[in-house]
TrEMBL record:
It catalyses: N(6)-acetyl-L-lysyl-[protein] + NAD(+) + H2O = 2''-O-acetyl-ADP-D-ribose + nicotinamide + L-lysyl-[protein]. Residues 27-267 form the Deacetylase sirtuin-type domain. This is NAD-dependent protein deacetylase SRT1. Its EC number is 2.3.1.286. Belongs to the sirtuin family. Class IV subfamily. GO terms for molecular function: histone deacetylase activity, NAD-dependent; metal ion binding; NAD+ binding; transcription corepressor activity. It comes from the Eukaryota. It comes from Triticum turgidum subsp. durum. GO terms for biological process: negative regulation of transcription by RNA polymerase II. The keyword Metal-binding applies. SUPFAM superfamilies: DHS-like NAD/FAD-binding domain (SSF52467).
Length: 465
């Protein structure tokens, strides 16, 4: 979970049981339970997954109630623990990406999350198949037209308060609100209703990395039992719902899910992150000279942070008379004055911040103030997909592409995308291949795999990135 989120919450004495000891099933018992879970998933006709903070800890985000959890340490007077990397750079875990593949394969119908870290959406999981019960630290919503805005920076407030930004719909323009609940805020009706409906329809609710203590959310998985469904729990601590579960596994969530994916012969897709900038070039003519300004900003607004950038080096490869400069902080802006007839190349080297999978990437701009460039808008989905395919094939980040350009007589604005991270995951059991283990269960499962749809459906919700 977000450490910023934990610090912004109103004080509350009773946060439930914290600091419970972790329990680990023996290797042999764990292997048997993973095979049993794989059978349950494969046989399920309506699988719903219910997630908590435990699925994000391997990304470097502390949980709340574990031995080193946020509330455990706070109760001991030790303060909020440090995250291993900036919150906005946290990457989806093996479990997050496995859920993406399970949905694509037609096995997983819906995910209900208590997390506010945005890792489900960051993983590429379809928005219309996700209920975020406690909100999202990176999402704003318009209270009037209901458009959702997914950001690459953490929203400043929690508690459903107004934020500094407004809806970009020209017919609306209302002030946006954050989506993260404080202690006394009620669960959002739309998310709660969808979650309850899915739990009632589920023949299997798989609870991953949650202590199942926070009401009313913790009671949702049990709705499936009333209609003949089953509940399975994977968590390192005991939960109040263990006695009602058909299967309880005490083990690392990533290890359990990796084993299930291997048994089901499903590949865990890599996580490939893209980040964006807006490049503005404006100029005014003064006699025979041109005074111009170059500015790099966030696509989320002029004042929004560009957290993935450390600095920008600006150079002019074909002009020794134009001095290079290093822009160290926002606003990343450069002003110069050149001859009206000057034609030159401007090279921008973007140095990325900690948490990125490569150190830098570059953009080369050809500047001619006497000739206006063409405006265009490329197919965003297609371009990003091509970039991700290239990154996966090359096994590295750093690819960049221009998505659109708007040219006016005195100004030019362009949007650029960069691949800033690629992370691969392996669906393997640490003791060897599940499919070659000689297990009759594994052999039978291989023959009964679901022939699900591998397509990726677009969200029907109004979600803007």
């Amino acid at each position: 979970m977000s450490l910023g989120y934990a610090e912004k919450l109103s004080y509350r004495e009773d946060v439930g049981t914290v600091g419970m000891p972790e329990k680990f099933d023996s290797p042999k018992l764990l292997q048997g339970k993973i095979e049993e879970l794989a059978v349950m998933v494969q046989k399920s006709k309506h699988l719903v997954v219910f997630t908590g903070a435990g699925i994000s800890t391997s990304s470097g985000i502390p949980d709340f109630r574990g031995p080193k959890g946020v509330w455990t340490l706070q109760r001991a007077g030790k303060g909020v623990p440090d995250a291993s990397l900036p919150f906005h750079r946290a990457a989806p875990t093996l479990t997050h990406m496995a859920l993406v593949e399970l949905e694509r394969a037609g096995l997983l119908k819906f995910v209900i999350s208590q997390n506010v870290d945005s890792l489900h959406l960051r993983s590429g999981f379809p928005r219309e198949k996700l209920a975020e019960l406690h909100g999202n630290s990176f999402k704003e919503v318009c209270p009037c037209c209901k458009t959702e805005y997914l950001r690459d920076f953490e929203i400043e407030t929690i508690g459903l308060k107004d934020t500094p930004r407004r809806c970009t719909d020209k017919n609306c323009g209302a002030r946006l609100k954050d989506t993260v609940l404080d202690w006394e805020d009620a669960l959002p009706p739309e998310e709660m209703n969808s979650a309850e409906e899915q739990c009632r329809a589920a023949d299997l609710v798989l609870c991953l990395g949650t202590s199942l203590q926070i009401t009313p959310a913790c009671n949702m998985p049990l709705l499936s039992i009333k209609n003949g469904g089953k509940v399975a729990i994977v968590n390192l601590q005991a939960t109040p719902k263990d006695k009602k579960a058909s299967l309880v596994i005490h083990g690392l969530v990533d290890k359990v899910i990796a084993g299930v994916m291997c048994i089901l012969s499903l590949r865990i897709p890599p996580y490939i992150r893209t980040d964006f900038i807006q490049l503005l070039l404006r100029h005014t003519v003064k006699s025979k000279c041109v005074r111009w300004t170059m500015r790099v900003t966030s696509v989320h607004g002029m004042r929004a942070p560009l957290s993935f950038l450390r600095s920008i080096e600006v150079s002019f490869p074909d002009r020794s008379d134009m001095k290079p400069v290093v822009l160290m902080e926002q606003p990343f802006s450069l002003q110069r004055e050149t001859s009206m007839t000057s034609i030159f190349s401007m090279l921008l080297t973007l140095n990325f911040s900690d948490g990125c999978g490569c150190s830098s990437s570059s953009i080369e701009c050809h500047v001619n103030f006497q000739k206006q460039k063409e405006s265009f808008v490329r197919d965003r989905i297609l371009v990003l997909q091509e970039m991700k395919c290239t990154a996966e094939h090359q096994s590295r980040a750093g690819q960049q592409s221009i998505l659109e350009r708007e040219s006016l007589p005195r100004a030019e604005t362009s949007i650029h995308a960069f691949v800033t991270n690629i992370i691969r995951y392996e669906a393997e059991d640490p003791k060897g291949s599940w499919m070659n283990s000689g297990s009759s269960t594994s052999s039978n499962l291989a023959k009964r795999l679901v022939e699900g749809a591998s397509g990726y459906s677009a969200s029907t919700k109004k979600l803007k990135c």
